[in-house]
Write a structure and sequence with these properties.
Length: 288
């Protein structure tokens, strides 16, 4: 039991630290592409620590105590994902359920503050869920190809038949679009667009914002980890780090060179990519 707890704590700490540094790397690459010096790579990590020592403030319009609890819930959701994924090698179906719960909590984080920016963000969270859930349908196509939803079994399948990214390229494309939708400053980041300040995070200060930033870092790490594990196969520590850096650099380039789409265009483009990916994969699967 003590060994399992130590493994969980170690993986959560790694997810937070690596996710924070990757966010910093993304901002640095974006800045260089846009011919700016940019912040240091450790900036996101420093901001997270800073918020934990700053005074917390609570708006009068907030729905207490739900307004406070929602931030801890976001962190716990992605900690659960770390336990299911890197620690236990569990089921992709559970990961999908965790992501769906995340979208619900993200919606409630905006509505609980009473801020007009937060309320608009939670409406957009519903729009984005309508586009992102079809993208997460990749798990069905992976099941049809491998015959399993278990992450460990999928890794074993790839050690025999080769990486799924070669046999299911459109499925990998769909999941990458899902990752891109969660990247800061991406064309699909409609829940925290600059026109609504920081979206559902606008009215969260101090300790509460710190929890939100922790959940963002762990979520980014987990999405990259799932992509590499499911589509590339068994990787060592160095392989995961290199893969995460490459994926972060690619998303940074896209974010730096593309404008933020309006909610309608964002949803339609993601749904269209999901449709093409699902239909194309089903047509190619018997051949592959």
């Amino acid at each position: 039991m003590n060994t399992l707890m130590a493994k969980i704590l170690l993986n959560v700490l790694i997810a937070f630290l690596v996710g924070s540094l990757l966010f910093g790397l993304q901002r640095k690459i974006m800045a260089r592409i846009q011919m700016r010096p940019g912040p240091p790579i450790i900036q996101h990590l420093l901001h997270t620590i800073k918020f934990f020592i700053k005074e917390s403030a609570f708006p009068r319009t907030a729905a207490m105590p739900f307004y406070i609890a929602i931030t801890a819930m976001l962190s716990l959701i992605w900690i659960a994902a770390v336990i299911v994924g890197p620690v236990m090698g569990g089921s992709l179906l559970i990961i999908f359920a965790i992501y769906a719960i995340h979208k619900i909590v993200e919606h409630n984080a905006g509505s609980s503050s009473g801020s007009p920016y937060g309320k608009l963000s939670c409406v957009r969270a519903v729009f984005s869920a309508a586009a992102e859930v079809p993208l997460f349908a990749v798990i069905i196509l992976i099941y049809l190809k491998t015959g399993t939803m278990g992450i460990s079994e999928i890794v074993s399948y790839q050690s025999i038949h080769g990486p799924l990214i070669y046999s299911l390229p459109l499925v990998a494309m769909m999941f990458f679009v899902l990752i891109l939708s969660k990247a800061p400053y991406s064309p699909f980041a409609i829940t925290k667009g600059k026109d609504i300040i920081s979206g559902y995070e606008t009215e969260h200060f101090g300790l509460l914002r710190g929890y939100l930033m922790i959940s963002e870092s762990i979520a980014w790490y987990m999405l990259l980890w799932i992509f590499l594990t499911v589509f590339i196969g068994p990787l060592g520590v160095i392989g995961y780090l290199v893969g995460m850096v490459i994926l972060t650099a690619v998303t940074a380039f896209i974010c730096a060179t593309t404008p933020l789409l309006n909610p309608n265009h964002s949803v339609m483009l993601q749904v269209s990519l999901a449709f093409l990916g699902i239909v194309g994969s089903l047509l190619l699967m018997p051949v592959l």
